[in-house]
Task: inverse folding
């Protein structure tokens, strides 16, 4: 049976198939690894509002990498002494407490001041 005829039969059953163009890579992320599909062919099957993706291509694996947000959370935040002194002066807190509040607020002066002021 020709692909065109098969597509027509599936459409009559309420299943539409489309091809995604210009896809360069598909990555499936898991906690410990990533599966990378290079040179992928991606078909989307839509059956009564439910979409399924069929992917074929060259498969490889690599160690899991951190997403942008996770990577940002892992970066240590530099807390300036002047910021610690400002928070301490504004709230009446000691320097160690002001520094801890700034670290918890990821360097956000206003959030640190609000946190210490609400105690």
Result:
């Amino acid at each position: 049976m020709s692909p065109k005829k098969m597509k027509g039969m599936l459409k009559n059953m309420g299943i539409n198939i489309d091809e995604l163009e210009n896809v360069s890579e598909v990555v499936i992320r898991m906690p410990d690894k990533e599966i990378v599909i290079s040179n992928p062919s991606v078909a989307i099957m839509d059956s009564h509002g439910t979409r399924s993706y069929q992917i074929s291509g060259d498969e490889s694996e690599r160690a899991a990498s951190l997403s942008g947000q996770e990577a940002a959370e892992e970066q240590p935040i530099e807390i300036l002494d002047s910021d610690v002194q400002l928070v301490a002066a504004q709230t009446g807190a000691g320097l160690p407490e002001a520094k801890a509040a700034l670290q918890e607020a990821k360097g956000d002066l206003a959030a640190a001041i609000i946190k210490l002021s609400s105690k």
